């Protein structure tokens, strides 16, 4: 048991060091030796846990995706109106991206490899499925237009959110991501929100945006 605990601690140390190095220089320029040196371990300890840099990157993607799934799990448990949950979830991912290095590097690695691994695919499918449930409920609540397909609405929102985060990497200002998400919703609202609910959700968006700008400023 003690050996297993030590092994997990060693693996954790390698992952943390890799996240720091990838944050500083990017995956392409990262050197295995720099990661090993930062951990203070031997090459043998590194290779015992990760036989390649790709395996190390995949483990970080796994962890980042799992963190996103955990954070978004609360969306389906909320008793708030469904469209509030949907909107809130997009800003939650912005907070994760701004405040959690593992999540941020995991997404950057996914883009660097040009494909999702199984865990990342599962995370995004989970998000789409959960949001589709909420979109269906939002239609029943009269907030999303009844003629729209809830799955299509969910995929469109998540695609736009992902794109906003990718564009957000062009600036070091975390508040810029909140601004992009706010603009995204301002454009989406007329297309998906019922006319009777439009005024309320514009006010809700303004409050949500302001709250997350304040949160990002405190990171």
TrEMBL record:
InterPro entries: CprB_TetR_C (IPR054126), Homeodomain-like_sf (IPR009057), HTH-type_TetR-like_transc_reg (IPR050109), HTH_TetR (IPR001647), Tet_transcr_reg_TetR-rel_C_sf (IPR036271). PANTHER family: HTH-TYPE TRANSCRIPTIONAL REGULATOR BETI, HTH-TYPE TRANSCRIPTIONAL REGULATOR RUTR. It comes from the Bacteria. Gene3D superfamilies: Tetracycline Repressor, domain 2. The keyword Transcription applies. Residues 31-50 bind DNA. GO terms for molecular function: DNA-binding transcription factor activity; transcription cis-regulatory region binding. Residues 8-68 form the HTH tetR-type domain. This is TetR family transcriptional regulator. It comes from Mycobacterium cookii. Keywords: DNA-binding, Transcription, Transcription regulation.
């Amino acid at each position: 048991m003690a050996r297993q605990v030590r092994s997990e601690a060693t693996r954790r140390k390698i992952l943390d060091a890799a996240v720091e190095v990838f944050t500083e220089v990017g995956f392409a320029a990262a050197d295995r030796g720099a990661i090993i040196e930062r951990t203070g371990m031997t090459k043998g300890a590194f290779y015992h846990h990760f036989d390649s840099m790709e395996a190390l990157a995949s483990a970080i993607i796994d962890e980042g995706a799992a963190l996103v799934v955990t954070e978004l799990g609360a969306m389906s448990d909320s008793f708030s109106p469904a469209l509030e949950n949907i909107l809130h979830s997009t800003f939650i991912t912005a907070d994760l991206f701004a405040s959690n290095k593992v999540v941020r590097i995991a997404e950057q690695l996914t883009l660097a490899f040009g494909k999702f691994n199984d865990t990342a695919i599962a995370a995004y499918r989970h998000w789409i499925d959960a949001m589709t449930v909420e979109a269906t409920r939002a239609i029943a609540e009269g907030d999303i237009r009844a003629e729209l397909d809830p799955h299509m609405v969910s995929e469109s929102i998540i695609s736009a959110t992902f794109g906003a985060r990718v564009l957000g990497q062009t600036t070091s200002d975390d508040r810029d991501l909140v601004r992009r998400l706010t603009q995204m919703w301002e454009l989406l609202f007329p297309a998906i929100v019922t006319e009777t609910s439009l005024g309320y959700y514009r006010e809700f968006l303004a409050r949500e945006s302001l709250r997350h700008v304040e949160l990002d400023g405190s990171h």
